Amino acid sequence: VTVVEKADSSSVLPCPVSISTKNKMNFLFANLKDRDFLVQRISDFLQRTPDSLWGDTNPLSLIGSSGSHNVPLSSSTGSDSVQKGRHYHPGLPTARQSLLQLYHRDGPEDLGPKAMKERMKEEAWNIHFSEFGRGVCMYRTSRTRELILNGIPESLRGELWLLFSGAQNEMASHPGYYGDLVEQTMGLCSLATEEIERDLHRSMPEHRAFQNEMGIAALRRVLTAYAHRNPNIGYCQAMNIVTSVLLLYGTEEEAFWLLVALCERMLPDYYNTRVVGALVDQGVFEDLTRAFLPQLYEHMQELGVITTISLSWFLTLFLSVMPFDSAVLLVDCFFYEGIKVIFQVALAVLHDNMDALLACSDEGEAMTILGR
């Protein structure tokens, strides 16, 4: 929002307020109670928002592929802090870039079919942005959903995950928060940090970004900072797998706020010692299986296998069991539409393997089929 003002009243539009946004869109809200109070509050917010926060570019530069360089990390972060040996500062590569950007930068330029497909996706999104806006004031249309189902291009993935999850808003309103958490947790030892250390090298060992200390250190900082922010959750297995993928497409700070959105809003109570939220959803999934695949449900109940198999699907958003390129498309849909996508895909997996599962005579056989 750039301008807010009272507009002239009429019988059609009583007590209207006009609001203009940075990307030249104007909105007229009418029939408002306490119009004067509302205009004053928005004006106060605008006065308190420093111009430097947005710079001269689109507000999306806060979360775009170039990283959150316009957001001050903390009031104490500066060149002197680097000399003091602080472990998180804007000079770190992962403070300004995603791991995937750093990984691609080191390799030759890809001119193959995959790269061409990515460029076509980017162009489709650019057309969408030009028609429906970009960032928090973007209109969501049926076309938005089609573009997501087709897979978000890698260059826009972090930006759109932040937008759809609401993490963008929290990050913009808490400048410096992540950096401060990292500083507070350096050198601290706890049960959570011991568990994090044990799982760091098991997160995505096959990906080049986590075969060196840069990726491992970034993952350690994000997980440790979150455990410190939310001691009720601390650290739970599966968080490392999800967070490593968030770090591929976003900076450390962006990955941290996406993890906050996941653990505290999108998947409440999933990542605690008893994974209560995930177990509740296993009960829902069993009910859905009984409703849509009754014959398979009865057989799977005899084998006692549904919850055993599907718990890891839900906790890792299929990232631990699907080929990476397929699973990350599922994460695109998850950030846009929420947990229902995981239910839909889980049912589809059972349906597509139904004949083989019905022929199973024991739990191990069923686990092997779905493990493939």
Strand order of the largest sheet: 1-2-3
Helix content: 55-70%
Q: For the report, how would you describe the main beta sheet? A: 3 strands, antiparallel
Query: What does the overall shape look like?
Result: globular
Uncertain segments of ≥5 residues (pLDDT<50)?
A: 55-86
Strand-pairing-aware structural class = mainly alpha
- Measured by DSSP, the beta-strand proportion falls in under 5%
Rg of Cα set? 23 Å
Number of strands: 3
Count of helix runs: 21
Order of helices and strands: EEEHHHHHHHHHHHHHHHHHHHHH
Distance between the termini: 50 Å
Region (Disordered): 65-85
Biased composition (Polar residues): 65-82
Protein name: TBC1 domain member 9B
Domain Rab-GAP TBC: 151-338
Would you kindly provide a written description of the structure presented here, covering whatever features stand out?
This protein has 372 residues and is mainly α. It contains 21 helices and three strands. It has a three-stranded antiparallel β-sheet with strand order 1-2-3, with helices on one face. A hairpin with a 5-residue loop joins strand 2 (17-20) and strand 3 (26-29). Helix 9 (167-173) crosses helix 14 (252-266), helix 12 (213-229) packs across helix 13 and helix 15 (276-292) crosses helix 16. The longest helix is centred in the N-terminal third of the chain and has 20 residues, at 113-132. The protein is globular, with a radius of gyration of 23 Å. The chain starts with a strand and ends with a helix. This is TBC1 domain member 9B. Residues 65-85 are annotated as: Disordered. Residues 151-338 form the Rab-GAP TBC domain. InterPro entries: Rab-GAP-TBC_dom, Rab-GAP_TBC_sf, Rab_GAP_TBC_domain.
